[in-house]
Design a protein that fits this description.
globular, about 15% strand
């Protein structure tokens, strides 16, 4: 465990969220009960209420997001993952609020020729599912090729809420889910 890794707990409309920082960057954001969480010791010390700059700013921005006053984040991020996972997570950051993408579209964007390579979409799905910075790195904006809601490590009800939360009034009127 990194001696500088620490966390705080944030109350959200979707349940508590554990925000984790290491050095000067956010490395994790996990809903209670979310799949693929690291061991408890990985989160480091609980510094809730201590004025930690990174976690205070992350908490402020997440509170603004959940209250409808922010749709994007401006936080230093350092999620831990493979080179491929990092590339996928960078693609997630390109999906605009109120928009969605598909696993296949992300896979095609990652391929050298822009074409979908067999099996790559499944690899993208695994990387999306293991995104350690939920909400901030918007893995909830990835849907199935037919537009259906598919897996979300935080649960489909949370994914549905997050997508609806980011919709414009016009989008809300034509929602499929």
């Amino acid at each position: 465990m990194s001696p500088s890794r620490r966390h705080t707990r944030i109350t959200t409309p979707l349940g508590d969220l554990l925000l984790v920082a290491s050095a000067d960057a956010v490395v994790g954001a996990y809903f209670d009960g979310q799949k693929y969480q690291p061991e408890t010791a990985w989160f480091g010390d609980d510094v809730t209420g201590t004025g930690d700059d990174v976690l205070t700013e992350g908490s402020r921005q997440l509170s603004e997001y959940f209250s409808g006053n922010r749709l994007t984040f401006d936080l230093p991020l350092a999620p831990v993952g493979t080179t491929f996972q990092q590339r996928v997570w960078q693609q997630l950051l390109l999906i605009e609020p109120g928009s969605t993408s598909t696993y296949g579209a992300i896979a095609a964007a990652l391929s050298d020729d822009g074409e979908l390579t067999p099996g790559l979409a499944q690899g993208v799905g695994q990387a999306v599912g293991h995104n350690p910075v939920s909400v901030v790195v918007p893995c909830h904006r990835v849907v199935g090729s037919d537009g259906s809601l598919t897996g979300f490590a935080g649960g489909l009800e949370r994914k549905r809420w997050l997508l609806a939360h980011e919709e414009s009034d016009e989008q809300r009127a034509t929602r499929l889910f």
